[in-house]
Amino acid sequence: MALQLNTRLRETKLREAVEYVFPLPPVAGAVSAVRRRAGVVLTDWNVSPGIFEDALLVVSELLTNAIVHALPPAELRLSWIRGDGLDTLRVEVTDAGPARAAGQELEGIDPDEHGRGEEIVRALATRYGIRFHPGGVTRWADLVAA
């Protein structure tokens, strides 16, 4: 059964930027479906091969974090900004905030299988951060193409 995603495209001509927004449906298989769609968008944008695979891994890690640790809804936003000799891909995932109290253990999750996503994102990204705002949290990572 194919998962159908509602997406909306917003192209902006500020600093040669384009943006794509993907809602993350709270269903099994959503992360892989959104990752595949993100790959198509990155290909359409001619994102540098040097950051393409890293970008898809960052997408997967940030989306998985939102599914495992946060309340729905979640949304992926990709922004491709060209200019000044450096092209930057921003990956943002916004969710409705933590699903558990700080320090609360995840039931049924093997700690040897989880918990490295943020380290992976930090290792791949040029810049990484978290923004807390009313109604949720946004985790973002910038990947700069040389």
Taking all Cα atoms into account, the compactness measure Rg is 15 Å
Structural class: alpha+beta
Q: List segments where confidence is low: pLDDT < 50 over at least 5 consecutive residues.
A: 9-14
Strands, count: 6
**SSE order in H/E notation?**
EEHHEEHEE
Please state roughly what percent of the residues sit in beta strands, choosing from under 5%, 5-15%, 15-25%, 25-35%, 35-45% or over 45%. 25-35%
Read across the widest sheet, the strand sequence of neighbours is 1-2-3-4-6-5
The biggest beta sheet is recorded as: 6 strands, antiparallel
Number of helices: 3
Average pLDDT value?
83
Helix content: 25-40%
Outline? globular
Note the quaternary state here. single chain
Distance between the termini: 39 Å
Describe the structure.
The chain is α+β, with helices and mostly antiparallel strands. The chain has helices spanning 30-44, 49-69, 117-124, and strands spanning 8-11, 17-24, 74-81, 87-95, 127-133, 136-145. It has a 6-stranded antiparallel sheet with strand order 1-2-3-4-6-5, with helices on one face. Strand 3 (74-81) and strand 4 form a beta hairpin. Helix 1 runs antiparallel to helix 2 and helix 2 (49-69) runs antiparallel to helix 3 (117-124).
